[in-house]
């Protein structure tokens, strides 16, 4: 008789404990800003996490500026042909990546960030930096483009390394590794070019 009562009681206690284990350990903190920049409805779906969404969103803005900088220097006369070649390669590599990154954000249901919080620490050029590049003539434009793009690439490499460390989407992590490899090589190339101008 004792066993017939003890078994259901044990099941009841085990079920209660299991349900308690499903409850949050503490209430959600409305002041928690760990997901800044994305609302709850912007949390990525599928196999992506917030790091993936941040990487894609910020890298779009970053790549767009690299394309803009390349366009500025490509529109000038008297730019070193090696710099022209580099700017063309940067555009050719980064323009399709912008579309790829945007496609992932669409797939994940995440609105892209405008990148307004990004600055020199992220390798972004200011409006004054871009104006200086725009105003520079051929040889000076070559030098300024290389100096600015080195800083720009260094910021992209840091962003990509953070994605490799924290991202969950395999394709986004793979792209981040490609960015690290390609832009690290271009930084070395640009430093050599800069030294030879």
Description:
With 197 residues, the chain is an all-alpha fold. The chain contains 6 helices and no strands. The chain has helices spanning 2-22, 50-74, 81-108, 127-135, 138-166, 170-196. Helix 2 (50-74) runs antiparallel to helix 3 and helix 3 packs antiparallel against helix 6. It is elongated and about 50 Å long. Residues 1-41 have low confidence and may be disordered.
- The run of helices and strands is HHHHHH
Helix content: over 70%
Calculate the mean pLDDT score and round it.
Answer: 82
Anisotropy-based shape = elongated
Runs with pLDDT <50, length 5+? 1-41
Strand content: under 5%
**Between the first and last Cα atoms, what is the distance in angstroms?**
95 Å
**How would you characterize the largest beta sheet?**
none
**Number of helical regions:** 6
Report the count of strand segments: 0
Structural category: mainly alpha
C-alpha-based Rg, rounded: 25 Å
Features:
disordered N terminus, mainly alpha, 197 residues, 6 helices
Question: Can you describe this structure in just a few lines?
Answer:
With 197 residues, this protein is mostly helical. The protein has helices spanning 2-22, 50-74, 81-108, 127-135, 138-166, 170-196.
List the helices and strands and how they pair.
Blueprint lengths: L1 H21 L27 H25 L6 H28 L18 H9 L2 H29 L3 H27 L1
